[in-house]
Amino acid sequence: MNPVYAQLQQEVPLAWYLILSAILFSLGIVGFLIKRNLITVFMSIELMLNAVNLSFVTFAHQWHQVKGQIFVFFVMMVAAAEAAVGLAIIIAVFRARATLAVDRIDRMKL
Amino acid sequence: MNDSLHLWLIPLAPFVGFLINGILGRRLPKWLVTAVALLAPLAAFALVTILSFGVMQRGLLTAASFFANTPALPFVDHFGQWISLGALHIDFSFVLDQLSLVMLLVVTGVGFLIHVYSVGYMSHEEGYARYFSYLNLFLFFMTVLVLAGNALLMFVGWEGVGLASYLLIGFYFQKKSAADAGKKAFIVNRIGDVGFLVAMFLLVANFGTLTFTEIATKLGQDAGWQGGVVTVIALCLLLGATGKSAQLPLYIWLPDAMEGPTPVSALIHAATMVTAGVYMIARNHVLFDHSPFALAVVAMVGALTALFAATIALVQNDIKRVLAYSTISQLGYMFLGCGVAAYSASIFHLVTHAFFKALLFLAAGAVIHSLNGEQDLRKMGGLRKKLPITFAVTTVGVLAIAGFPPLAGFFSKDAILYAAFQQSNYGKALWFVGIVTALLTSFYMFRLFYLAFLGEPRSPQDHPHESPFSMLAPLVTLALLSFCGGWIWLFGFGEFLSPVLGARITETGGIPHLEWILSGVAVLVALEGWFIADRFYRRKPARAEQWATKHSTAYKLLANKYCVDEIYGAVVVKPLLGFSKFVLEWVVDFALIGGLAWLLAGIATLAGAILQRWQSGNIRSYAAWVAAGAAALLLFVLVPWGSVWPASLEFVWKVAGH
User: Fold this and answer.
1) Which of A58, B113, B420, B593 is deepest in the core (most CB within 10 A)?
2) Residue B2: its pLDDT value, please?
3) Mean pLDDT of chain B, nearest integer
């Protein structure tokens, strides 16, 4: 094993990664809940996804299993697709409503 | 004789007619409806006739008398068990004996004639098929009532004829008065039915059976059955009979029942159904024989009703109401006859009354028909020339009911009065009431006769027309029966019934030729009634009015029918309505239903107020709930509650000082 890596691993325990992941996820939730701007909300969702990704990678590394890393790729792929669709929707919504405040986008119909 | 006489065929025929006309009647052509409606009672009548010929033939072979006691009767037909509860067994069983045979002949015979009459009478009416289906239904239930071998099966017929009567009184249901009259009849009859029901309960409790013959056997075996519970049972049965047969105090529905079509009044409210009470008493006569008190009450009710209704009939102006009160009065005669244990005389009067009262009603119907629905006697008059056949048959009917020999009413009324006179204790008083009633009867019938047929025409209708053949044929037939029907008494009708109803009372001696003397008195009284009516309504038509103004209090009392309806309304109906209004409006509607509704609505509102916060429509609040839920789940999964809880409880326990 790479000695630098091993040292890193020694210096940075598993819990730190997980705590960082939890902090990021919580920030994502709080951002999702309190932000008004649709784009910021969207970014918060990305943040949560990536917090989860971090956990996956951490555990994959910890248990020496590749499954977790594969899952991260899946999540990133879904996130990319979601970003594409979501941004398209945001643009469409902005064109239609001239606003991106989530509180005011509460109708399905115009 | 065969094992079964297939008595069930008799009620079945009208029932099939009811089903066909009741279900398909609207779609069938009119001639087919008529055919079905007439064939049903005709089939029943034919069956009964064949049966009675069989019975008479046996009689002719064994005895000289025309109506001899026949050994084959009573015949019981069992069609299986209905109710079996411990020791109590109730069968579907029909009994054919002399009594039910006579009743069947009257019911199906007169019933058939009235069906024929109805074809003419109802031909222009709406609901032609409905009318005949009800009429057939009535015949079905009436034959069940007559044939029933036990009280419960009789009760089925009893209620059924009540239903048919209700349907037919309210036949013109768009008319409020007709619908109300139907309801009144139904409700008043329910009061009587309570008596019948209680009597049945008591019979089951004390005798353990409802079969008529078994009750009679048990009563005969034990001499201890005197008064007491037997009196109570008999009085309860009497209450039932007063309801159905329109006696005091439950007679009030019958005059209102005249709202129905006139043939219905003739069939149900004169000839057959209202006599069911008399038939029921005769059927249960053993019970009454064991209770002198109950018999006395029956006689009293009968005599009072006869007199009471006859006085009301004196001043009524509606031709059908005169006949209705006359029917009540004549039914009172029959009760009087039952009350002096002259059951066969009562049944005899029942038969003759069925003939002449059906005749009078149908004739009245013909008159009403020809005057386009006019029922007021004051607007008739002078119909003798215009309606010669109706006039002739009405004459026969009036003479018959007034009691002129040799018409039917003379014999039957005389038989009852004779039996009453011979009753030892209060018989003379009953006879006197009966003879006064006979005078009144003669008077009001001739009054009707004079007002309707003689004098000057007072109707705006210019050309009253004689009725069609289908109406005249039954009238003429009934007129013949009213003329000759009484003669069966001379051929031993009483002896014919005696196996069922007990021996006819024979002359006890004392006054020689008592029967002839009493008959003479009765005829004189009838003549007197005719004479008075002649004075009032033919010679000096103004005299009636003068009397009415001179004795205005009495006249008004009679014209208002003693205000019995008003008294019942104030004493019974109004408090009852008020009470039920209170119960329904406040207790049930306001407190129970309203309270329950409010309670449920309150729960729903409260729950909604709380739950609607979950459904804000705000995406972020949903997300917050999701997050909170996830946090709660995590808390639940991660914290080892299994050890935390007992430990914390233990901690609290210790802190509390244990």
Assistant:
1) B420
2) 44
3) 86
Structure tokens at B92: 């579907």
Query: Residue B424: which of B504, B500, B505 has the closest Cα?
Result: B505
Taking CA–CA distances from A26, the nearest residue in chain B reads B627
Question: Which of B340, B310, B337 has its CA nearest to residue B325?
Answer: B310
Cross-chain Cβ contact B623/A102 below 8 Å? no
Q: What's the confidence (pLDDT) of residue A60? A: 92
| Separation between Cα atoms, residue B108 and residue B176, nearest integer Å | 32
- B193 in helix, strand or coil? helix
Q: Which of A64-73, B35-44, B355-364, B546-555 has the lowest mean pLDDT?
A: B546-555
| CA pair distance B138, B164, nearest whole angstrom | 5
pLDDT digits (tens, 9 = 90+) for B120-132: 888 888 888 999 9
| Rounded Cα gap, residues A107 and B383, in angstroms | 87
Rounded CA-CA distance B409/B481 in Å is 11
Pairwise CA distance, residues A31 & B178, whole Å: 80
DSSP-assigned letters across all residues of B328-348:
HHHHHHHHHHHHTT-HHHHHH
Residue where the block lists tokens 């009429």: B135
Yes or no: say if B324 and B255 are a contact pair by the CB < 8 Å rule.
Answer: yes
The pLDDT value given to residue B64: 39
**Strand residues in A19-95 grouped as ranges (E):** none
**pLDDT band for position B61 (50/70/90)?**
very low
Chain B residue numbers touching A102 (CB-CB < 8 A)? 619-620
Residue of B618, B619, B627 lying closest to A29 (CB–CB)? B627
- A93 CB burial (10 A radius; 0-12, 13-18, 19+): middle
B510 touches chain A (CB under 8 A): no
The Cα B349–Cα B331 span in angstroms is: 9
Q: What is the pLDDT of residues B473-501, one digit of tens each?
A: 999 999 999 998 888 888 878 878 887 88
CA distance B538 to B32: 47
Interface test with B, best of A26, A100, A106 (most B CBs within 10 A): A106
Smallest Cβ–Cβ distance between A102 and the set B620, B624, B627 belongs to: B620
Q: Give chain B's length.
A: 658
Q: Which amino acid is at B241?
A: A
% of chain B residues with pLDDT over 90: 38
Domains, in order of start, for chain A: 12-97 (1.10.287.3510)
Q: What is the pTM of this model?
A: 0.76
- Nearest 5°: phi and psi at B6? 55, 50
Q: What is the pLDDT of residue B275?
A: 92
- The alpha carbon dihedral of B496, B497, B500, B505 has a sign of negative
In this predicted structure, what is the pLDDT of residue A23? Answer: 95
Chain B residues lying within 8 Å of A106, measured CB to CB? 617-619
* Mean pLDDT, range B318-336, rounded to an integer: 92
